Inverse folding.
């Protein structure tokens, strides 16, 4: 067995289910595309920005997330067309372009999973595009996790200056939960937790994205 498999067993034995689910989500998206040969797995680089967490718990030892804050990995965003109804937020680290304000985009309500996919795919404005682009889509779970800010102590756990009208609620990703294909991954911006839920029976918010490296 590899170190990864052994570590997963350790997590399963020692960690409450609530935290195991979040860890499993991060592990799955980081291992996506990894090589599998003779029961060995290889991690791929996630290239995610930092979580934004800057405050450490004083009674805990060095090594917390807040102890590592290289400037190049810190979250950074730029809003384009900030006074228009089709403003977009560009993530300076990943290059992804996000809808700044779902209200302006007419997407300030919930959908089932298929409805969420269609809503982003069909996102257009009066000109036949939204912000000049027609290739909007529902983000995958890795992309959606990248804009959660774990340094914020009150929900929603996201930078409200650059992501307007975010609800302290669940947001769909386009990523299916492979062991149960009727389910899909989501990010809860009420507390930053990542989990999966039934695609048809559940109704969540969306924030559309385009582009990327």
């Amino acid at each position: 067995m590899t170190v990864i498999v052994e570590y997963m067993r350790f997590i399963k034995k020692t960690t409450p289910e609530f935290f195991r689910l979040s860890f499993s989500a991060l592990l799955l998206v980081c291992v996506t595309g990894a090589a599998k040969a003779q029961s060995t797995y290889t991690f791929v680089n996630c290239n995610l920005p930092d979580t934004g967490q800057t405050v450490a718990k004083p009674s805990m030892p060095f090594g917390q997330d807040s102890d590592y804050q290289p400037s190049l990995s810190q979250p950074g965003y730029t809003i384009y067309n900030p006074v228009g109804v089709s403003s977009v937020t560009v993530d300076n680290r990943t290059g992804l372009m996000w809808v700044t304000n779902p209200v302006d985009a007419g997407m300030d309500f919930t959908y089932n999973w298929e409805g969420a996919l269609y809503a982003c795919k069909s996102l257009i404005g009066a000109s036949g595009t939204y912000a000049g682009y027609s290739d909007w889509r529902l983000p995958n779970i890795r992309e959606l996790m990248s804009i959660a800010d774990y340094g914020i102590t009150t929900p929603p756990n996201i930078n409200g200056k650059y992501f307007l009208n975010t609800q302290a609620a669940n947001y769909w990703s386009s990523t299916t939960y492979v062991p149960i294909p009727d389910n899909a991954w989501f990010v809860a911006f009420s507390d930053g937790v990542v989990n999966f839920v039934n695609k048809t029976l559940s109704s969540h918010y969306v924030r559309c994205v385009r582009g990327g490296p």
